[in-house]
Design brief:
It is built from 15 helices and 10 strands. It is an alpha/beta fold.
Length: about 400
């Protein structure tokens, strides 16, 4: 399945990388990729939100997935479904295949989703009102009550993904099992919450949970990307533990005024830094991902690059796991996406939290308040424009 050209994606490169790795590693002959027929997105898909685009793209492939599975029915043992592709659970069920959900966010957020769905469906509560709660909100998968401003907007904002995420949570219960990229030592409370008798997750049983993390790409990286070797060479010249990585993930970006304020802060701190700076997607293509700047001078304070030339480096894309693994890196200003959290923990690099969207605020809360594994810049910042709703005010 090919994505439109305006979506900045490395999916094809990643598939090629995995294919190469599987042909030479222990999984030889077990991992194969099949491209589904390309879809033709309607013009309005790209002008709406990224969630709207993904939802419709997945729906458009139902028949193709069904035909593919039907043609290989004799060899298919089961279907593993992405957490946002739950319509494929129905496809698998219709063909008689067991389905397993692959949940790429933390177990704590899975619990929050199932809890909100239970409140809505069985206790008939308006979960959007949790956002206006006067006190912290108990959530079974969190050891401490969650401040209302930290709750993910996809769970409490009717103008965003609330209805869709409630639907996803209902679909999760249809799966034969839920595979999560986490591990018991990191999320003992959340994982144990799913097995408690009289669970707050409702009358319908939660499928068996399989924590299989941390799953990290520790094989050959995409270092063939232009600029990767220069980044690592620059790090080679820096003192051990002296560099702060500033990176907001493949889908994260800041408004131009925020970029200038962050630049001012980095310069005044005197710290060495490696900054992955991405341009926000155009307003008429809100489904697209952040892109590269053609000139950093257009957005950074005048003279910033010259004044910080000896202590900092501003780039676009970074090979994040390779950077975090480098001995020169001693800190990480992060959006707290779950993959980034796992990579930072694996590499032993502490996080300073700056969540943007999705479940990242709840991830940041868990890291700072529950686990003591990060320091707080902010826990409750929501980059609302990612979903196409208003601005990104703090």
């Amino acid at each position: 399945m090919k994505l439109p050209d305006y979506i900045d994606t490395v999916s094809s490169s990643f598939a090629d990388l995995l294919s190469t790795s599987s042909s030479t590693g222990p999984a030889t002959g077990r991992l194969n990729f099949f491209h589904l027929p390309p879809t033709n997105p309607a013009p309005e898909w790209s002008s709406k939100t990224r969630g709207y685009f993904i939802h419709n793209l997945v729906l458009s492939q139902k028949s193709n997935v069904a035909n593919f599975l039907q043609s290989r029915k004799a060899t298919v043992a089961g279907v593993v479904v992405d957490m946002l592709c739950t319509t494929m659970i129905d496809v698998a069920e219709e063909l008689g295949f067991p389905s397993y959900l692959f949940f790429t966010s933390p177990a704590s957020f899975l619990g929050a989703m199932l809890h909100c769905q239970t409140l809505h469906d069985e206790k008939h509560q308006d979960v959007a009102e949790l956002r206006n709660a006067e006190s912290e909100v108990p959530v079974p998968s969190f050891a401490k009550p969650v401040p209302p401003e930290v709750l993910s907007l996809v769970l409490v904002d009717k103008h965003m993904w609330l209805d869709r995420f409630l639907h996803y949570a209902r679909d999760y219960r249809k799966a034969k099992g839920i595979i999560i990229n986490t591990f018991i030592e990191l999320e003992p409370h959340a994982l144990n919450s799913f097995s408690v008798l009289g669970s707050a997750y409702g009358s319908k049983q939660v499928p068996p949970i399989y924590p299989v993390g941390p799953i990290l790409n520790q094989g050959p990286s995409l270092n063939s990307h232009e600029g990767a070797s220069g980044i690592l060479k620059w790090l080679d010249d820096q003192p051990s533990g002296s560099v702060v990585l500033v990176c907001f993930g493949s889908q994260g970006s800041l408004h131009e005024d925020q970029v200038r304020e962050l630049a001012t802060g980095l310069e005044k701190s005197g710290s060495r830094f490696l900054w992955s700076l991405r341009r926000q997607s155009p307003k008429d293509k809100r489904a697209s991902f952040p892109s590269e700047y053609t000139s950093y001078e257009d957005v950074l304070p005048e003279g910033f690059l010259e004044r910080t030339a000896k202590t900092g480096k501003v780039v676009g894309w970074v090979p994040q796991l390779d950077v975090l693994s480098h001995p020169a890196v001693g800190g990480f200003v992060s959006h707290c996406g779950w993959n980034s959290v796992l990579e930072s923990l694996w590499c032993g690099v502490p996080i300073a939290t700056w969540p943007l969207h999705a479940e990242q605020q709840m991830n940041a809360f868990q890291l700072v308040r529950e686990l003591g594994l990060a320091v707080e810049i902010t826990l409750s910042y929501h980059e609302r424009s990612e979903m196409g709703v208003g601005g990104g005010e703090k």
